[in-house]
Amino acid sequence: MKDTSNRPLSPRTMAVHAGTRRSQYGEVSEAMFLTQGFVYDSAEAAEARFLEASREEFIYARYGNPTVAMFEDRIAAIEETEDAFATASGMAAVNGALVSMLRAGDHVVAGRALFGSCLYILDEVLPRYGVEVTLIDGTDIAAWKAAIRPDTKACFFESVSNPTLEVVDIAGVAALAHDVGALVIVDNVFATPAFSRAVELGADVVVYSTTKHVDGQGRCLGGVICGTTEFVRKTAEPYLKHTGGSMSPFNAWVMLKGLEHMDLRVRAQAATAMALAEALEGHPKLARVIHPHLASHPQCDLARAQMEEGGTVLSFDVAGGKEAAFRVLNALEIVLISNNLGDAKSIATHPATTTHQRLPDDQKTMLGITPGLIRLSCGLEDAGDLVADVLGALDHA
Question: Are 254 and 215 in contact (CB under 8 A)?
Fold first, then answer.
């Protein structure tokens, strides 16, 4: 990409061009450097590179790779952060962001509405190494104020929670955290990079499972940590490159290709999710319909302030519990039953028996993960076809 420093570019344009590194052949599509090692001109050159490798020099794929670097630079440009580190999965990004910065005796405050693997890190991994964790209702800013202490090192939450789509006030939490010098780490998957304003609102570190909307076609695992160069290169990178959490060059190439049309995909999916939520709201066989931009959502105003669109996911609670929910799932003809989200294909999930199965029943109840709850990630199918599919399936409830 030529120098455009004299004018700002939109995220959609940067998602196509930012960070491109062309080889001597001048290829249009980004090159895939499918290599784990690199050759040096001399023993002295190898010594010099190991002493201090620049971002344009590479040693080993676990430490860095040209294709991975392109992806890191591109998503950092979209997120408007100084840097990014690409990881093997979304959970590698969450784990890397938290574990790399914390030590025994540190304190973390986290919203309790989290994906099951995130809760495992907070409930099991961090306390094992002497980190104190306080879980709170992330939607209650007073709870954040009461829990954050002078020795709090980090505040962690999903900006939109999985699967009940609770919305956390990023700016409100950031103000409280920054007063005591704590970092704000936001899992921003449901907001998507297309609709993200987390950094603008005060987040210090933003993590994504790029498995979701960035790939968007169910092909590869991946994750990324976006933040300052100080955090990414001096805190997260040493931990991740030595413990093996980096992204493969092939997956980075897939993610680069996904970024090129991510904005178009996600906007279409978000429009479908809103149309489906509106069509389902008030249905006699549903106890509730959850979508961040529905007027009935408890944090609708906050969601609309933080996100341009309400995202690609909605959840609905089928009256009649698990048996009724299963009848609905089994009657779907277009929507697939799986546990991913952000895919081009629409996917329905029963969180209580899959993604959040291992949570104790009292925690499921507290988080609103009822036996009848279905999470639906809208794909790129025709919105009318999806509405008809779900309404037809509800006839079997």
Answer: yes
